[in-house]
Specification:
This protein has ten helices and nine strands. By secondary structure, the chain is of the alpha/beta class. Helix 1 links the parallel strand 2 and strand 3. Its EC number is 4.2.1.17. This is Putative enoyl-CoA hydratase echA8. Keywords: Lyase.
């Protein structure tokens, strides 16, 4: 499929998806959201070798959110179709079993902020600005991924005020993982990607599933679930024992480990 509103590059098991409606601040039109949904769905198909996806809007702007040139003119049917597509897209990304890095430069407002929150890792340029202004328009923002990242109190403050915050404040409240100067933005993305793409896909799937499940369980049930997952991976992955042995041999520690 040829894309009109996004650019896609795949190299060394890493896919980079770039929103490309620069003149509209990467506003989430139905067309662009459809293409985002399609490309992320395609990475999940059998035989696809992509292990990690970088999702970005480029160096200047992540996304201004819903397209204000399009949305006010939606018919009831068009609005329903748009938000059903949004539900399908966010639901897929919340359960995504590959590593997803969202790289944010410039504004990430409303729906753009929602997409940024889908990342397992969020890397922000110092120019990044995050905001949920939906309350000013009379409707609700998406709370689930926001609360999961920064908690209820911070989420209420951010959404009830509807005012944007900068990259440093976003880092301070735990919203993003790294903040870097604009000139280091691409290098930081490449560094994280190179490190994380080597993680075994089946272990990534298990770990991401565990994050989703344990948050819904009490402490004892969560502990049992995690240890059962550890036992399963230990028994089905033949390389785990060899990896453990190689660490000892590589560091020259065989026969030397003593606990005093």
């Amino acid at each position: 499929m040829e894309y009109q509103f996004i650019r896609v590059e795949v190299r060394d098991d890493i896919a980079t998806v770039v929103m490309d409606r620069k003149h509209e601040l990467n506003a989430l039109s139905f067309g662009m959201l459809s293409e985002i949904n399609h490309i992320f769905s395609s990475f999940l198909k059998d035989g696809n070798n992509v292990r990690l996806i970088v999702f970005t809007g480029g160096d200047e702007c992540f996304s201004a959110g819903i397209d204000l040139k399009e949305a006010p003119y939606f018919t009831t049917e068009e609005a329903t179709r748009y938000f059903n597509l949004a539900i399908d897209t966010y639901s897929m990304l919340l359960d995504y079993d590959k590593i997803l890095i969202t790289a944010v430069s410039g504004i990430a407002f409303g729906g753009g902020f929602n997409l940024a929150l889908m990342g397992d890792i969020i890397i922000a340029s110092e120019s990044a600005i995050f905001g949920h202004p939906e309350i000013k328009y009379g409707f609700n923002p998406l709370l689930t991924p926001l609360v999961a990242r920064i908690g209820m109190a911070r989420s209420k403050e951010l959404t009830l005020k509807g005012e944007p915050i900068g990259a440093q404040e976003a880092y301070h409240i735990g919203l993003v993982n790294r903040v870097v100067p604009p000139e280091r933005f691409r290098d930081e993305i490449a560094s994280w990607s190179k490190q994380l793409v080597s993680r075994p896909p089946e272990v990534v799937r298990a770990l991401k599933r565990s994050f989703d499940v344990v948050s819904r369980l009490d402490a004892k049930a969560a502990l049992e679930y995690e240890l059962e997952m550890t036992a399963m991976l230990f028994n089905i992955r033949g390389d785990i024992r060899e990896n453990m042995k190689s660490v000892i041999q590589r560091k020259g520690l065989a026969g030397k480990i003593v606990c005093s």
